[in-house]
Structure formats: C-alpha cells, structure tokens
Amino acid sequence: MMSKEIRKGFLKMIVLKIISERPIHGYDIINEIESKTMGHWVPSPGSIYPALDFLESKGYITMEEIDRKKVYTITEEGKEALKYIDQKRRELAREINAIFEDTTEENDDEKPCD
C-alpha cells in the first residue's frame, strides 16, 4: 500500500477522480476511499475538506447544498484536469516500467531486494 506521504500527495487527484464518477458529499468520499483501499486508508475529514476547498477554488468542482449536505460535482475544467492527470500518470508509468525493465535485465541472476 501507499505510504502516508504518497497518499497525501495524491489525495486531491483521488478526490477529483471519485467526484467524476458521481455527485457526492465529503463523508461518502471518505467511505469510497476506504472501500477502494479495502480499509487500509481512511482519510480524515481534516484532510478531505481542505482538498475539496482547493479543488473548488481551482474551478475543478462545484458545491451545492442538497438536504443540508454539501454535494460536490465535477466541472468541465475538472474533467480536463483529469484527462491531463491521466496522461501524466501513463507517461510516468511508462518511464518507471522502462527503468525497472532495464534494471531487471541487468540483474536477472541476482536475488530480489528485501
């Protein structure tokens, strides 16, 4: 699983991805992350709500109050940001794979690192 630092760095992207799937409120985002990580990560409201505020300030999401709950929806700008993030994620994955493929070929006879 991801370390705490990595999770924190990716939180805004993860939240934006979840919001892209359907309009949702903060506690449901927390539950969704918990579910997707099989309970290994349950972000606190103290990390989710600042991420939501940031995404809203950038114009990536909007908030509407429905039945006294804040419901977040992705905007067109948010959809474009997700496309960009996905493109960068794929590029990074290719670069990492290339590095490890080179390393694997050089070290085929060595034991894996502990």
Summarize the structure.
Helices cover 64% and strands 12% of the residues.
Q: What class, by secondary structure content? A: alpha+beta
Strand order of the largest sheet: 1-3-2
End-to-end Cα distance, whole Å, is: 16 Å
Poorly predicted regions are: none
State the helicity in percent bands.
55-70%
SSE string, helices as H and strands as E = HEHHEEH
How many strand segments? 3
| Rg | 18 Å
Strand content: 5-15%
Folded structure, characterized:
The chain is α+β, with helices and mostly antiparallel strands and 114 residues long. The chain has 4 helices and 3 strands; from the N terminus they run H-E-H-H-E-E-H. It has helices at residues 4-21, 26-36, 45-57, 76-106, and strands spanning 24-25, 61-66, 69-74. A 3-stranded antiparallel beta sheet has the order 1-3-2. Helix 1 packs across helix 3. The radius of gyration is 18 Å and the shape is globular. The relative contact order is 0.12.
Could you list some keywords that capture this structure?
114 residues, alpha+beta, three-stranded antiparallel sheet, 4 helices, 3 strands, globular
Please render the helix and strand layout as text:
Elements: H1 4-21, E1 24-25, H2 26-36, H3 45-57, E2 61-66, E3 69-74, H4 76-106
Antiparallel strand pairs: 1-3, 2-3
Helix pairs in contact: 1-3, 1-4, 2-3
